[in-house]
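Researcher: Predict the fold of GGDEF domain-containing protein.
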Amino acid sequence: MSMDALSRDRGIIAVATTTIGVLVVFGLDLLPYRVLGAAAALVSLILQVFAAVLSRRIAALPTTTRSGRRFWRVMAVAALFFAGGSVVAFGYSAADPDTVTRTEPPAQLTLFGLAALLLIVVIFTTPSGITSGRERVRFWLDVTTVMVGVAVLVWQLSGPSTDQPETGDLVRALVGPAAMVVVAFGVVRLALGRSAPMTRLAGAVGAVPAVLHAVNETTAAAMISSGHVSWHTGIVVLSNVGFVAGLRVQWVQSSTATAAPAGVDRSYNRMPYVAVLANYALLVWVLMDVGLGLSAWVVLGGALLGSALVVARQLAAFADNDDLVARLNAKVDELAEAKDVLQRAVQERDALGERLRHLAYHDALTGLANRTLFLDRLRAALAAGDTPTVLMLDLDGFKPVNDQHGHHAGDQLLQAVALRLSRCVRDAGTVARLGGDEFAVLLRTAPADPADLVRRLADAVAEPVKLGPDRTATVVSVGVSIGMATAGPGTDLTTLLHEADLEMYAKKRRKVGQPV
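Model: Structure tokens for GGDEF domain-containing protein follow.
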């Protein structure tokens, strides 16, 4: 809820108009003396009834929490007690206009006391929202610091007027502002908490009546003795206007659910520091005004106590910071361990991925490139415009070795042949096992001496191979039929492989005496 929206609210406008009217009528002493008390009581009565209605409406809002609903219902009852006190004041003032300058009637004091008691109880029983132990310690240190400043200020405003007071004066100076301090304590407790039932703006506006009441109680005798009785009664009315203003702000903001709650949502609060600073400023003023006397010593003691509490609060914050740093370091260590585990997992994953890629493109028995990798590289060479050479190799006599000595011996023979072919080709090309006893060689370019290459490959394959353990090794040898084809301009993959196959099968048939 923006300030513009609040300024357009009819209730806020009515409160502002009432404030101006009270300031003009009572400030300029426009009312006759005999109706001052009755007029102030009547206006206060109307405002207090309106405050009770507003409190009930706030409690009924769906945005109001359970504890907030209880708070505002009690506030409505307290407003009615205040209204009852105003009824009594109106009756007394109407019967005897001079009561405006005297102490309130007992019935009025009783009703006002009950209202204040209700407010104190509900304020102190409303949850602060502070849960953790460390946070609770910081919270109470902040509250105590602020309350020291409040108590010193109240002492200065309503304390004894001499540096050597009589015992009775001192007792009255201590007991008189006690209720004000208690109420202030409850308000500070809510303001520093995290679940205050009112918004920040409503809480600030609602604090105005307490300030006005304190000022009125402190200066009442001076205003009456100087003939400004209307000012005294006007401040009473303004206190009730402020009461209604705070409730109206709460109603407008809560009904739209757009206002920030009064609970502190940051890790620190400025109120304790402001309280200590105010104490020292008050000390300077007292020393300049009356010098070093009882008042100065009280203010100095409050300032020193507030400073000590702030230091304690900072030490508690340092302890919390140390604890947070320790926990952060522990988390960093955990993250480091997790990082190591993750790195190992990533390495294992990469190794597994590399293994899978290797298995996908290589023959599991010999470790040579398989048909897929061979064709991919041949296709890439042709696409690049190269003139690759393909050699197709088929072993001669492998089947008898495999049948006579078993598949294990056949596997050993294939592994030996693969190793020898790789040594012959080295980095000049790719050696692949196409399947069974068929091999292939891919050269990036045509060999300088094709016949010499074919001879070297055939000689390497034909070398005897020992199968089995050394003591019982069986020596076998096989031959190989090799077909070669070199790509020319426009030669495609199928044609190139077909030409190499035709030459390889032609040589194989010639070896067994079959017609080509």
